Fold DER reductase.
Amino acid sequence: RQCPGIEPLCLDLADWAATEAALGAMGPFELLVNNAAVAQLQPFLEVTREALDRSLDVNFRAVLHVSQIVARQMIAQGLPGAIVNVSSQASQRALRDHAVYCSTKSALDMLSKVMAMELGPHKIRVNTVNPTVVMTDMGRINWSDPQKSAAMISRIPLGKFAEVDDVVNSILFLLSDKSAMTTGSSLMVDGGFLVS
């Protein structure tokens, strides 16, 4: 309703064939935001193969695959473009019980840098936004314990978690011409967490 030009498409991004078929029929694309993610928190010694596989499928493999499909279309059409991958401050800082999440987000940051290098000659910019805890449904589930959240908030100089609009506004900047010379960068939306 808010954006009548946007057509929602519901897919299991782990299903490569279905994703390729659906996105191949869409386009042409000029902008892409990869925002799908899961956070299955487990202590390192208790990480299960299922949690690892699911996290890799959603947090890393889906981004790689969707970006390939969209970037190929951009290149074929001769269109410049921008891709923003939603990463996390957890790509830069170890967090207890986040072994898999931190690792997949670190991999996403490096993938984004390689994409920026290889897609730059085609005038396609690639960046990440790396927020702190964001008050989404997933954020509320994982950070609802007051003791756990108080410990994290105490390490954020601005003294609060991010709201959805904080991240959206950063994404809009990276998609826009206002960041025309920005590629291969990670924009921290962390309230200063990484400097504390």
User: Anything to note?
Assistant: The longest strand covers residues 124-131. The chain has a mean pLDDT of 94. The radius of gyration is 17 Å. The chain is about 45% helix and 10% strand.
